[in-house]
Structure formats: structure tokens, C-alpha cells
């Protein structure tokens, strides 16, 4: 039986790039376009991969390709290997955004997508037209799994929690927002300018990521409701920030929302935005990354774009990765 080293030596690593695109696209022509080679070249590479893995990998059904069971298993592993090789080859080299085909992965909530998505995607498209932006929507388990997550992605957009106390994590301030109460335009249970605590205590709520068993939880809305002294009577629970106003606009419920998202949604939904009865702590989102990315040219370029998107699309300088300036090893009191 061949050793792992001899098996690796017998594999053309260029085939892994082709395999990654075949698994992503499930289409030989589109994979060829992504890699920048001819369709026959990709077909020949697929034939070699099939022989190597002794598996069809792509199975044609009803005029299109589907992944085999083995191909599904290979998907995440190939992504990780290719990313590692790309980072290895990028170490110490210059980064040319105009020609790079690198993929940048950023993890954020749908709230952050609503605020940052358009300027960030536009900036990447303009400056690096061949690069790929991979936006991973955050799940409730992000904070619990941040140690693993931060090692395999480029950046994470999140508020700080105690679970971000990781020695090798770095961060920079990204954006601030404030919390507001939101009701349907026709909801007359509330005043015109602000909501009072009595109204909030007896109201029914639309709450994102609510957990009946744990209140307050690590979710930002839950913590702010606790600060108001309100344990919400939940009428609608949804695993999304952006979905909240759509589930609110035709009801007599109330929600606590980020003001930027609320005002954007109020442009096309019948909503009223009310001040909270007492000041709440501002929402302060940070950009997080692993310290191994500090001096890597491509990553520094991408961080600059993300920080610029948060400031209205204006590129910002990235200070030295020594804990000075805006970037820091984030410390908790």
C-alpha cells in the first residue's frame, strides 16, 4: 500500500484546483471558465480525477451533473486544502488585486449584510474582478465555535462577547449603531415618538434568535431587552435579523431593531421607528481575524476593503499589525 506521501507525490496539485471548481460549479464549462483553461482540458482533468479516486465524482442525470457521495465528502476538504496552498504561495509575496483569483471568506449576520453587503461587494468587484467573495451567514453557534471558525475564514463581523477572549484573535472597530423600537405604521398602541416601559412590558414581540430556556442569552437583542427590564411575550421567533420587519409590518407586535436596518426597511415597509424609553448600550461591531493573517498582503487588502465599506465605501489605511492604531488584540475588562 502506498504511503500518504507517495500518494501525494503522485497527484498533480493543479488537479485540486480543477476539482474544487468542478465540485462548486457541477459544470465542466463553467469550471473551465473559472480556472481559465479550455473545456477539453477540464474534461481530461476530470477523467484523471475519476481514475485517481476510483469514483465518478460527477454523475450526469437529466442533462446535468450531480455530485457522487464521495464528491460530497471531498467538498469541504478540497476547499480547505486549496485555501491552505493559496495562503502558502501568497506568503511574503505581493498581492495584485486586479489579477487575483483568490476567494475571501467573511462571516457575518444578515444585519451586517444589509449594512455592508452592497459597498463591500461593489468594492471587491471594482478592484478585484476575478476574485470571489464568499459570504457565510452567521448562525447562533458562531460565538460558541469562534475558536474553530476564526482559523478557517478570513474575517468575522460580530460584537464582542466573552467567547472572543482568544489570545491569537485580532480585531478592529467596524461600525456602530443604536437600538430602536419598531412597530407597524398602523399600530396605535404606541405613541408617535417613543415607547414607554409599560407599553413594552405588555406588548407582544417579534424577536430574532429567541431562546425561551435562556434569557438573557448571548444574542444582542436578548441582552438589550434584559437591560430594559422586559422579558418579551414572544409572538414570532425568527432566526434572522432582516426578517423581523417583514413579520412585524402587518401586526400589532413590537420589535427591537438596529436603527440602520430599521430605517432601510422603513423605506419600503409600513413601519414606525420609536425611541427606546431608556438609553441602551450602542451596538459596536468589530472585524475579527486570526493573527496569522496580520502581515499577509492579500488579507490586509481585504481588511482595508471591509473597513472602507463600513465607512461608506472609502478605503481606509491598515496600520501595522502590532496592536497600535485601530487594530488591536481585543481586550475585555
TrEMBL record:
InterPro entries: LysR-type_TF, LysR_HTH_N, LysR_subst-bd, WH-like_DNA-bd_sf, WH_DNA-bd_sf, YidZ_PBP2. It comes from the Bacteria. Gene3D superfamilies: Periplasmic binding protein-like II (3.40.190.10), Winged helix-like DNA-binding domain superfamily/Winged helix DNA-binding domain (1.10.10.10). Keywords: DNA-binding, Transcription, Transcription regulation. Residues 11-68 form the HTH lysR-type domain. Residues 312-333 are annotated as: Disordered. Pfam families: HTH_1, LysR_substrate. Belongs to the LysR transcriptional regulatory family. This is LysR family transcriptional regulator.
Amino acid at each position: 500500500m502506498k504511503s500518504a506521501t507517495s500518494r501525494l507525490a503522485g497527484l498533480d496539485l493543479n488537479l485540486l484546483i480543477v476539482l474544487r471548481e468542478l465540485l462548486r460549479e457541477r459544470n465542466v464549462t463553467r469550471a473551465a471558465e473559472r480556472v481559465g483553461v479550455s473545456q477539453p482540458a477540464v474534461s481530461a482533468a476530470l477523467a484523471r480525477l475519476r481514475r485517481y479516486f476510483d469514483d465518478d465524482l460527477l454523475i450526469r442525470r437529466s442533462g446535468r451533473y450531480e455530485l457522487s457521495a464521495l464528491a460530497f465528502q471531498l467538498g469541504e476538504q478540497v476547499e480547505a486544502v486549496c485555501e491552505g496552498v493559496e495562503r502558502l504561495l501568497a506568503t511574503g509575496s505581493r498581492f495584485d488585486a486586479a489579477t487575483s483569483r483568490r476567494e475571501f471568506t467573511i462571516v457575518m449576520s444578515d444585519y451586517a449584510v444589509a449594512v455592508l453587503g452592497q459597498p463591500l461587494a461593489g468594492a471587491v468587484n471594482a478592484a478585484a474582478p476575478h476574485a470571489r467573495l464568499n459570504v457565510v451567514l452567521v448562525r447562533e453557534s458562531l460565538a460558541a465555535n469562534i475558536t474553530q471558525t476564526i482559523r478557517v475564514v478570513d474575517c468575522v463581523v460580530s460584537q464582542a462577547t466573552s467567547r472572543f477572549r482568544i489570545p491569537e484573535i485580532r480585531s478592529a472597530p467596524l461600525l456602530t449603531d443604536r437600538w430602536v423600537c419598531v412597530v407597524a405604521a398602523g399600530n396605535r398602541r404606541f405613541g408617535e415618538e417613543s415607547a414607554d416601559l409599560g407599553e413594552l412590558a405588555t406588548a407582544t414581540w417579534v424577536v430574532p434568535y429567541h431562546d425561551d430556556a435562556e434569557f438573557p442569552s448571548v444574542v444582542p437583542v436578548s441582552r438589550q431587552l434584559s437591560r430594559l427590564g422586559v422579558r418579551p411575550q414572544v409572538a414570532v421567533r425568527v432566526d434572522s435579523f432582516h426578517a423581523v420587519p417583514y413579520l412585524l409590518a402587518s401586526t400589532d407586535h413590537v420589535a427591537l431593531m438596529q436603527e440602520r436596518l430599521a430605517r432601510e426597511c422603513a423605506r419600503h415597509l409600513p413601519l414606525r421607528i420609536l425611541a427606546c424609553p431608556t438609553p441602551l448600550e450602542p451596538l459596536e461591531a468589530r472585524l475579527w481575524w486570526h493573527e496569522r493573517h496580520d502581515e499577509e498582503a492579500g488579507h490586509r487588502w481585504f481588511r482595508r476593503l471591509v473597513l472602507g465599506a463600513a465607512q461608506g465605501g472609502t478605503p481606509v489605511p491598515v496600520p501595522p499589525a502590532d496592536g497600535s492604531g485601530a487594530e488591536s488584540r481585543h481586550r475585555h475588562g
